[in-house]
Amino acid sequence: MRYLLALIGCVVSFAAAGEPAPRRPWEPLYKIRPDEKHRLTPADVVGPDGLVYPNWTKCGVQGGIPQVAPAARIAEFGGRPDDEADDAAALDKACRSVGEKGGGAVVLAAGTYHLDRPVTVRHDGVVIRGAGRDKTRIVFRYAIPAAGAAFHWPPAGSRVGRGTHVELHCRPKGIAKMTISVGGRVIKTWQRSRHSGNTFGTATTGAAIVGKLPDGAAKLQGLAEYAGGAKVTCEVPVTLDSKFDDRRPVPSSRAAITFLGRGRTGPRVPLATDGKRGDRKLVLKDASGLAKGDCLVIDGPATPRWKTLTKNACRWGTYRRYELRVERIDGAVVHVNQPLRIEFPVIDGSYVQKTVPIRRCGLEGVTIEQTEDLWISTALFRGAWNCWARDVKVRMCGRFPVYGLNAKWCEIRDCVFDDAHFKGGGGTAYAGWEHCCDCLMENVETFRLRHAPLFQWAASGCVIRKGVFHDSDAQWHSGWTNENLMEQCVVTSVRGNGGYGYGMWASPPADTAHGPNGPRNVVYNCDVRSQRTGLWMGGMNECWLILHNRFVVDRGPGVYARTASFDHVIRGNVFALKDGRSPMVQLATADCLGVEIVNNRLHGGSGKPLTGPAKPAKLSANTAAPLAADPPPRPTPSVPSIYEWQKTHAE
Description:
Distance between the termini: 38 Å
Number of strands: 53
Structural class: mainly beta
Helix content: under 10%
Shape: globular
C-alpha cells in the first residue's frame, strides 16, 4: 500500500508539472516472482533466494571437456622444437590429416615452435595439445615484408577464378588507404575510419575481376597509402580463368590459430509467428529445407522500429541472435533443444538459417606469444560448437588472446592472458564472448587488457566466473547482450590500458558505435575496484540482478543508471566510496523505474543510499557507515555460486 501511494504521488507530481509520468519503454518480461507460475518458462530458474534467474544449466561444453586421445605428433609431419624453423606447414598438415581420419589430438612435445603464417583448422574433432603451458611454446612471428605490402593470397602463379580469395596485407602503422587493382582497374578500396583500429589488410574475391577482364596472364597490384603521403606498392602475377572453380582453403588471417566452421548456409527462412521468450517451438513459413540435427541461427534484425523502441543510435551491429539445434519437425513447426531467451518478432523480419559449425576441437597445454604488432588474434573459435581452450597462456596478443565469435557451448578455462600489442581502440584487447551463446569462461587471469571480462554483440546466456582481471574494466560492451553472468570474479579497473576506468560498464543507446544492452544480465559475488563509478549502466537495461558484490570506488557512485534502465534488483552488496560525496546508487533519469535497493551496506561516500529523480520500487534495510582505512570485507552469500547451484539443483 505504501508503494502504491508513493507511485500515485509520483504520478500526481509529474501531472502537476505538466509532464507525462515516466513509464517503461515496453511491457516488462523479466521481473518475475516465483509464485507467478504462469510467467515462468524453461528459460527461467527459481533461485534459492526467491529470485528468478536466467537458465545457465546448458552452459559450456556439453558433457564437459573430453580427454581426447593422441592421434599424431607434429614431428611426424616435420615439425621440430627449438630449431628456429617455420612449423606452420607441419602443424597444418598434421591437423588436416587427423581431421580427415575422424579427429584426435595433434601432440606438440616440449620446446619452442614457430609459426610464420596463420594456421586454420577446418575439421571436427581436432585438438592441438602441448606438453603444458610451461613446457610447450609457440612463437607466432608472421610479419609484413620489409617492403611494407604483400598479397596474403593468392600465391604467385595462381589461377584466379570467380571464387578465389584475394587479400592484401600492409604495414598498419599510419595506414590511411589500401587499394587492390588489376591492370589499372581498381577492384577494392579500404579507407581508415574512426573504428579501424590496427587494421592491416583488405580482401575481395575473383568475382570482382574475372569476366571484367580477359582470361589469361595478369598482375594483382596492391597500393598502401599512409598519413603524410608515403606510398608502398606490391604485385603478384596470376592467371585469370573464368572456368576455374577455386576450392583451395585459405589460411584465415584473423588469428594465429583459427578453428573455423563453414558458417551460414542456405536461405533465410522467416518466422510465421513471433518467437516468444521461453519458446522451444518455432513456427516457420517453410520448414521443408530443415532436418533433425540441423544447427540453426535465429536472428531478429535491427529494424528502424526496434531501434526507435530501444533508442538505439548505433549505425551497425547484430543485437538479437541465438543458436539452436533442431530436435524434430512437425510440418512448419520446428522443435528446438533450448528455449529462446528473448523475443524474435515477425514484425522485424525475424528468421532462421542453417549454420554448419566446427565441433569438438580444442587447444591445450601451450604458451603462444606474438612478436609483431599486427591486428591478429592468437586463437579464435569462429563458427564453433563444443570447442575449448584449456591450460593456455597467451603473451602479447595482436588483437584478442583466445576469443569466441559466433560460437555455442564453448569453454575457455584455466588460462592466462598477458598483455596486447595494440590497445588503440576499434575493438581490441578483449577477453570474453562475442556473438556467442551458452559459452563458459572459468578460472582465467588477465593482465593489462582493455576490456576484460567482456560480453558483446548479442552474447546470450554466457558465463564468466572465478576469473581475476588485472588493470582492465568489465563490460557489456555493445549489442543487446542478454542473460549473461559474471560471478566470483575479481576486477581491478584502470584507464591506462584503454579501459574507461569504471569497474563495470554497459554501453548506452545513444552510443553510435555500440548501442544498448539487453535484459537480465547478472553480477553475482564479484569483487570490483575502480577509479570511477563501480557499475555504470547506460540505458534500456531490463531487470539486471546485482547481488552480493563488493565495489570499492575512488570517485563516483556505486551504481549509476540512466535512460530506462529499469526493474533491477540491487541486493546484498557492499560499497566503499572514497570521494566523500557520491551516493550508493544514482538513478539519473526518472524513467529508471521498478528498481529494488535492499540490504546493501554503504561505507563512505555521501552516506545517502540513493539520489536522482526516479523513485525505487523498494528501498529498505540499507545501512551507512564511515569509510575506514581498509576496505570493508566482501559479502558472504549463503550460496557462493549461483551457476554451480543451478548445475546441482536445476538441471
